[in-house]
Amino acid sequence: MENNRGSWNSKLGLVIASAASAVGLGNLWRFPYLTAKDGGGAFLLAYLLITVFVGATLVITEVALGIKTRKNPVGAYGSINPKFKFLGVMNVITTSIILPYYSVVGGWILAYLAKAHLFNNMKDYKAGFLNLITADYEPLVYFLIFIVLTAVIVFFGVQKGIERFCKFILPALLFLLIVMMCRALTLDKAIEGVKFFFVPDFSKFDARTCLDAMGQVFFSISVGMGIYITYGSYLQDDGQKCIGKVIWPVVTADTVVSLLTGLTIFPAVFALGIEMTSGTGLVFITFPKIFGTIYLGTIFSYVFFAIFFFAAITSAVSLMEVAISFLIDNLKMSRKKAVWIDFIYCVVIGSISSLSFGKLGGFTIAGKNFFDQLDFLASNILLPLSGFLTSIFVGWVLGPEKLQVFTNLKQQKMFEFCIKWVAPIATLILFVDCVK
Ligand code: PFF
Predict the structure, then answer these.
(1) Of 188, 248, 283, 375, which is the most buried if we count CB atoms within 10 A?
(2) pTM of this prediction?
(3) How many CA atoms within 13 Å lie on the side-chain side of 344?
(4) Residue 315 near ligand 1, beta carbon < 6 Å
(5) What are the pLDDT digits (tens) for 383-428?
(6) Residue 378 CA: which ligand 1 atom is closest?
(7) CA-to-CA distance for 324 and 329, rounded, in angstroms?
(8) Are 25 and 194 in contact (CB under 8 A)?
(9) Which helix (H) or strand (E) covers residue 364, if one does?
(10) How far is the CA of 216 from the centre of ligand 1 (A)?
(11) CA-closest residue to ligand 1 atom 4
(12) Residue whose C-alpha is closest to residue 324's, from 312, 336, 310, 311
């Protein structure tokens, strides 16, 4: 039975919903772009090491805090040490900043899904993308559809909404991604792309590569936002001792999706001799160009943007659930009321973000449009800062031995070392680099 605040049907619910939260725009859009910029295999190597030693450590920590306290981030930090309640508040603020503009990108994806049949007749892919994001109403309408869908899933609750939806979407996403990868790998000269992805080019390997990899791990694995505290708090039985086992599938799923994406985009880009455009453009410009070129491209366009949509919406759901759990637990609201309030907030902030590239382009804060400013604040300041403070909190204030997450002594000691030393040092370096 689900209680008032909600609970998973089983441990599998926690694993699947967490993995679905981690798999998102970070894997499909940001990962390939950074890999291309930072020397292929060299970036991949740094990314994998940081995932294991920093990313996984923070995921384990957050889930453990959720399971131990069974509270949302504000309640979780506050109940262990009232002085650290602000860290939970920071988590709620961070996810509330990210969700509206993340949903705007979700809307662009929906628009591309609706227009996938037009790709093989498009003349200028870049102009096509710019026309969409600068239009007066179109991005706004798609954003509204995306945020309504997100709110509906969250409205149905932890078990009936989030768990049921993610159990269906995540396997579908993996299946479709494997289909896409097979298509890309069977193109002529695909092997060149595979080599680029796996063979490290150490001439491009420097401190920047490591910092980019670290930022990417944070973004991709969804740490520093209290998502895993919230999801962990919905576990019914005492999962404290099996956190290690619960968490590896999450970290593995996130990494595997990034690898599958790399094994799709690089072979396709190399085989077709298409130039890699950077940033947002990689997905919205390079991919449609690829689909416009290959046999049965229209079908693959639908498949690709469907994958993208699935990945984005399950992450958006997790971002929304952090604020909802706070409103339910701390302000004693019903789920229905909490979802309505958060939804209205997202519509207002998201609409302004959505119009940042068009009508409201002239509205800037410190030289950045509204959308970019939200992204900068969340990704460059709040995420690394919160990762740093979380590791200090668990490593030095609470004491990692209080979180007995592994039954194996060696693994437990390794976890304690990582949360005390590796995670704080790494996150501090990242934070200093981001704000400088
Ligand atoms: N980890 C998810 C992704 O890779 O898209 C969700 C997410 C991470 C959303 C970071 C937003 C964010 F800033």
Answers:
(1) 283
(2) 0.93
(3) 5
(4) yes
(5) 999 999 999 999 999 999 988 888 889 999 999 999 999 999 999 9
(6) 13
(7) 9
(8) no
(9) strand 364-365
(10) 10
(11) 26
(12) 336
